Amino acid sequence: MENRLLPPSFLFRFAIPCRSRSTLWGEQGANLEDQYRLPFLGEVDQRTAWADVRAAWSREGISFYVRVAGKRQPIWCRDSRIEDSDGFQVWIDTRDTHNVHRASRFCHRFAFLPAGSRKNLDDPMAIMLAINRARESPKPVSSTALKVRREKRIDGYLLQAHIPAEALTGFDPTEHPRLGFMYAVIDRELGWQTLNLGPEFPITEDPSLWSTLELVD
Hints:
The model has no long low-confidence stretch (mean pLDDT 92). The protein starts with 14 loop residues before the first strand and ends with a strand. The chain has one domain: Immunoglobulin-like, CATH 2.60.40. By secondary structure, it is mainly β. The chain contains no helices and 11 strands.
């Protein structure tokens, strides 16, 4: 029988800070500076990052900045195949529960794609996705409530996204300043870049595998 060792990151429960920002979204998107960069925990498993992921919060919600670099192939996105498309997916549990394996109504999954919308499939898009095997679902969210902006770059793209507070069931930074959190930057050419554990684990549906995002001032 083959001996498969667990990756080192599986043995730890990570908590990472997310800094507050007075303005989360404007005409140019989020435009988050370097101090909002999230650490890449995959280094523990000797994985290499090819996306710069940043996040900020306020009582208005949470914003993200994702810079993908190193691409040689065009972006591949389809609104009919969202889970297979290039882009940024994020999972948020507003109760930071790590002792259950099925999502509650406080668990959310959002997808932000750099393309795939409209007839020419070139406009960015944002949508809330269902979580497989969830015990309950959060309140439904219109895609128009989510914000997304994309800039094409020679070797990739810059994607900026905003999730308003009303799209997050149970979002209360005062009473619950710790969020269950996982992200995946997905690319057909470059693969998956996740916060820590990779897609070989059921990170898309099991909140016990997510890390913690600490909302700090």
